[in-house]
Write a structure and sequence with these properties.
alpha/beta; Arc Repressor Mutant, subunit A; Rossmann fold; nine-stranded mixed beta sheet; three-stranded antiparallel beta sheet; 11 helices; 12 strands
């Protein structure tokens, strides 16, 4: 193929093709496929990403300038938006904004198109949410793998936890650990010690929402760090949207702490959003807890994704913290009746940098109530 008019270039032909296809109601993915074939035929080097950006740029131009034909293919345009959003929820107002719909006739046509898309099971109306809220239906599932016996031990996440907990329960990749504590009970002390003790074995991201740089520096100095070069884990100031910073990498994500000030039940959704992003790592989440309680703000909603759940409550009379195991989904095999309900007392010392036993009990697994002498016989009694 050749062009008889020297003023006609490949770029002009490509742009004209995009304009024609868009005004004819073609979808963005379809246009990109056509342009890919076009490029391949003429041996041009434009990438798929560049082609997609070019098509979207023309699409945005037509929306802003109102250059589409009077009769638009609203259903196809809505499906394009869904394709790029991939998952989550979207409102009717979002569609109006994205498609630049202003008149009553345009909005009526959009709602009719949405009804057809709901019938096709691409979208689903959300009951109980804001009027006109839709959920994007996900049709892909990941098949569960059965891990061979010889590989199971190696698939555990070798994290170092305080008070012998590493020997008491199994932590696997994609695990959530919850540490809920009342005021001054030692949440941050435990979280920082986990970061410190694991920083040379794993990459650790520590998200701090509770302290300024000066106070955090004081805490780190109390833990024995003399300068920034001594710290091998990553520290960030972050107070919300933690799921945006969770990756599929094999690392430890520590959130100190997950804040919520009303509608406490919603915290379960925030924890799930973090769990959804995890793949090969572990997330340890600190929660605020009312003194005298055993669960963080949000109650049972905070337990749904937790493989290990600890409550920390400061005991005024004893001037110490009571640590209780509220949940341990995968106890070590030797604890054949589980470790749920076990507890111990500790004092937070040296400005929150270390721990001290209150009952002259070791700070390892043998210091928990419920750890009986029969452990040698592999007979564990339930804690009273």
């Amino acid at each position: 193929m050749s062009f008889s008019n020297e003023n006609i270039t490949l770029d002009i032909v490509r742009d004209t093709s995009i304009i024609t296809m868009l005004k004819g109601g073609a979808s963005i993915p379809h246009i990109v496929r056509v342009l890919f074939i076009f490029n391949k035929y003429f041996n041009t080097s434009t990438s798929l990403d560049e082609l997609e950006k070019e098509a979207l740029s023309w699409h945005e131009h037509f929306l802003l300038e109102g250059e589409y034909k009077q009769r638009r293919n609203y259903q196809q345009e809505i499906e394009d938006i869904i394709t790029f959003r991939i998952k989550g929820t979207i409102t009717l107002g979002d569609f109006y904004t994205d498609l630049n719909l202003k008149t009553k006739e345009e909005k009526d046509a959009c709602r009719k198109a949405l009804s057809r898309i709901v019938d096709k099971k691409i979208l689903e109306k959300v009951d109980g949410g804001r009027t006109g809220t839709y959920r994007i239906v996900t049709n892909t599932v990941v098949r569960t793998q059965f891990i061979k016996k010889d590989d199971r031990e190696g698939r555990k996440f070798p994290i170092i936890l305080p008070f012998g907990l590493s020997n008491m329960c199994n932590i696997h990749p994609k695990s959530i650990i919850i540490i809920a504590g009342s005021k001054s009970a030692g949440k941050t002390s435990i979280l920082l010690n986990i970061a410190k003790n694991n920083q040379k074995q794993h990459e650790v991201d520590y998200f701090n929402s509770d302290m300024g740089d000066e106070e955090m520096t004081d805490r780190m100095t109390n833990m024995g760090f003399t300068c920034e070069e001594d710290i091998f884990f990553n520290m960030y100031n972050q107070s919300s949207d933690f799921q945006d910073h969770i990756t599929s990498e094999r690392k430890i994500f520590i959130i100190d702490f997950l804040e919520i000030h009303d509608d406490f039940y919603k915290i379960g959704g925030q924890i799930k959003a973090i769990w959804d992003k995890l793949q090969n790592g572990v997330a340890i989440i600190g929660l605020q807890m009312k003194q005298g309680s055993t669960l963080g703000r949000g109650g049972d909603f905070t337990k749904e994704k937790a493989r290990l759940y600890l409550s920390l409550d400061y005991i005024d009379v004893l001037k110490c913290t009571k640590i209780r195991i509220e949940e341990a989904k995968s106890p070590a095999a030797i604890f054949n009746e589980g470790i749920r309900g076990w507890w111990r007392h500790v004092k937070i010392i040296r400005g929150g940098s270390n721990f001290q036993s209150v009952d002259n009990m070791p700070l390892d697994e043998t210091g928990w109530t419920g750890y009986e002498e029969e452990i040698a016989k592999k007979t564990i009694l339930r804690p009273v």
